[in-house]
Amino acid sequence: MSNYAISIKSVEKKGVLDEITEIITAHNINIAYLNLFIENDFKGSINIELEDVDDINLLIQDLNNLNSVYNVKIYPSQEDVFGKRVIIYGGGAQVSQVALGAITEADRHNIRGERISVDTLPVVGEKPIAEAVNALTRLPRVSVLVLAGSIMGGEIIEEIKKVKSIYDLTVFSLNMPGGVTEVSDLIVTDPIQAGVMAVMQAADTAVFDYRKLDKDNRKF
Amino acid sequence: MSNYAISIKSVEKKGVLDEITEIITAHNINIAYLNLFIENDFKGSINIELEDVDDINLLIQDLNNLNSVYNVKIYPSQEDVFGKRVIIYGGGAQVSQVALGAITEADRHNIRGERISVDTLPVVGEKPIAEAVNALTRLPRVSVLVLAGSIMGGEIIEEIKKVKSIYDLTVFSLNMPGGVTEVSDLIVTDPIQAGVMAVMQAADTAVFDYRKLDKDNRKF
User: Fold this and answer.
1) Fewer CB atoms < 10 Å away: N or C end of chain A?
2) What does the pLDDT average to over A113-138?
3) What sign has the CA pseudo-torsion B141, B132, A9, B62?
4) b/e per residue, B91-105, with b = 16+ CB within 10 A?
């Protein structure tokens, strides 16, 4: 059983996706992620991340037999290409400093064979940040969220609780007023260190894990 | 006709996606992006970005009628939450400096109501970077790619040509040997400026557009 990414070029008409998912389902294969768009030449491009594939060649043969499919190509999965994601939200001077720490640390891990990416949304305001936290339930491969600001609370706290009830998201935050530190797993005062620690938490090649720290010793 | 994101909680069994896409297809609605995972409580979470929706309430009513669906919720689209993506690939000292410029500039645009995110993969080596460039054909909302390194060429050049033949990806690169500058739309020597200019290119609130520059004046 392996994971694959496939890219299907097809005619651009409604119903094609339906035909394709029917075949994948019949092969007892899980779809983890799917993305569609129309190419410059008006062909449809359907990109699918597959899990638990028994016989990829048999699947591709069946997909190629569809009249609406031009060709099917196999690629490395997004997990292989982009790896785990460290996500940074916040605004002003701090968000780029957290990113600086995270990217520099990710570079050091990736050069040793890991794959960690650092995705940043520079955004301010309770509602936009709360919405962006909520959206983490609908993104693949999210490992650690870092909140980089000088005051966060209210709706942001509620959305963090909601996401944490759905999956095991790790949340680090800068030391700040507003209440968000109370729902954070680790509080870090220095923004560069916050970024570095978030990547260390996500990495397989680092020994750091906030869960190994005493509960009353998770603020630096 | 509007765009929406919906999140469907369902029983976790194969075939559910097939039932759902059949209904969406019957409503003549485009699926732009789809992501699935299993929640902590073993329920399935199916998240779909919909385009050209005529009557969202009618669709949700039909989806709720499926035995395998627990509930359907409407959210702002990923375009609304994360906006356009500036993507940065490369390693070492330069990748975090390009990100610093891009994130600081994105913060300035986003505070005025835009939404631009900055996604970074710190990675070195011809093959991993070429694979990551190729993967841009399978990611949504990509606006500008910045290549941040000190030598890039070979397979990376071929993959850039391939992506550009599929959609209108804008590629900025640092000034470097290896040949990659020949397929770049803009060459920028200073990494912070490269990041700033990439975000200005993506932004609606900036006047910068490399296409307005003479072809022999696209190196800074």
Assistant:
1) N
2) 95
3) negative
4) bbebbbbbbbbbbbb
pLDDT confidence of B190, banded at 50, 70, 90?
very high
User: What ipTM goes with this model?
Assistant: 0.89
d(C-alpha B88, C-alpha A170), whole Å:
24
Q: Is-contact B181 B171, C-beta < 8 A? A: no
Nearest to B36 among A14, A31, A40 (CB): A31
Contact check, Cβ <8 Å, B33/A31: no
Q: How far, in Å, CA of B21 to CA of B190, rounded?
A: 47
Best mutation target among A8, A37, A74, A116 (most B Cβ atoms within 10 Å) is A37
Give the pLDDT confidence score for residue B33 in this predicted structure: 80
Tell me the whole-structure pTM to 2 decimals: 0.90
Cross-chain Cβ contact B18/A21 below 8 Å: yes
Structure confidence at residue A14 (pLDDT): 63
Are B40 and A103 an interchain contact pair (Cβ–Cβ within 8 Å)? no
Most A CBs within 10 Å, among B23, B37, B134, to test the A interface: B37
